[in-house]
Task: inverse folding
């Protein structure tokens, strides 16, 4: 029984010695950063954060060779770790400043959370899949990050922890989430992919005043859906 539980836990969480960032990983990551920059990401702070965070830690160890390809990849619970270019694109749009209070909806693997933390943000992140919440919580802690992670449905945001300087949604919303707009500070920014199952427009909303918002659109992407309730 003891060994059985131990085995399950070993499978669920990478043991500390698996968290190795070798020169090979660093080399592959450097190439990935160059590729992302080539595709149009200009913010040096974002590129530096991508360079700093070992993406392979956030994927199962069997898939290490996929970690530095610029593509999304399946994680547990039928979800995905976002494509690195998409992570960089959303982060650039979000324009995170040191000390910003950021709400992220869709913790997933925790990779985007780590990027936001590397930019000096205080991060509140919500995940509706329990298995992902547990795994990200454990991993981020192991890596020395200190985010505020929550298990639950993020569609209503976290009003009692707000208002937020920045809000990032990493799953596809069918419409602009009005409740979340209200949780922004004035001059705060919300980035959210909005559309149907097959493609979403990257929407950036800046709160200009109590009831004034400026909306812009920034090309099409594909995310897993933002769903109600928990799993
Ligand atoms: N940023 C993550 C992306 C994960 S995919 C990463 O880089 O790994 C999007 C995540 O949003 C999924 O894990 C999904 O379970 C989660 N999600 C979907 N709807 C949600 C909701 N209403 N509240 C919180 N999380 C949600």
Result:
């Amino acid at each position: 029984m003891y060994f059985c539980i131990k085995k399950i836990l070993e499978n669920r969480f990478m043991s500390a010695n698996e968290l190795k960032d070798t020169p090979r990983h660093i080399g592959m990551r450097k190439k990935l950063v160059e590729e992302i920059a080539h595709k149009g990401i200009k913010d040096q702070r974002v590129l530096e954060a991508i360079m700093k965070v070992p993406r392979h830690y956030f994927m199962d160890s069997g898939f290490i060779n996929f970690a530095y390809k610029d593509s999304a990849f399946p994680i547990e619970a039928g979800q995905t770790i976002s494509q690195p270019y998409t992570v960089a694109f959303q982060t650039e749009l979000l324009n995170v400043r040191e000390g910003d209070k950021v709400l992220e909806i869709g913790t997933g693997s925790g990779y985007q959370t780590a990027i936001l933390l590397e930019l000096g943000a205080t991060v509140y992140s919500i995940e509706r899949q329990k298995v992902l919440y547990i795994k990200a919580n454990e991993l981020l802690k192991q890596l020395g990050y200190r985010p505020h992670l929550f298990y639950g449905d993020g569609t209503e945001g976290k009003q009692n922890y707000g208002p937020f300087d920045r809000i990032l949604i990493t799953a596809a919303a069918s419409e602009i989430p009005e409740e979340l707009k209200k949780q922004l500070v004035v001059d705060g920014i919300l980035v959210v992919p909005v559309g149907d199952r097959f493609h979403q427009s990257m929407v950036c909303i800046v709160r200009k005043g109590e009831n004034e918002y400026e909306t812009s659109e920034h090309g099409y992407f594909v995310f897993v859906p933002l769903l109600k309730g928990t799993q």
About this structure: The pocket of S-adenosyl-L-homocysteine is lined by residues 79-82, 105-106, 108-109, 111-112, 126-129, 132, 153-155, 170-171, 224, 226-227 (CB under 6 Å). The longest strand covers residues 184-195. The first helix runs from residue 2 to 12. The helical segments are 2-12, 23-38, 44-52, 84-94, 111-118, 130-142, 178-181.
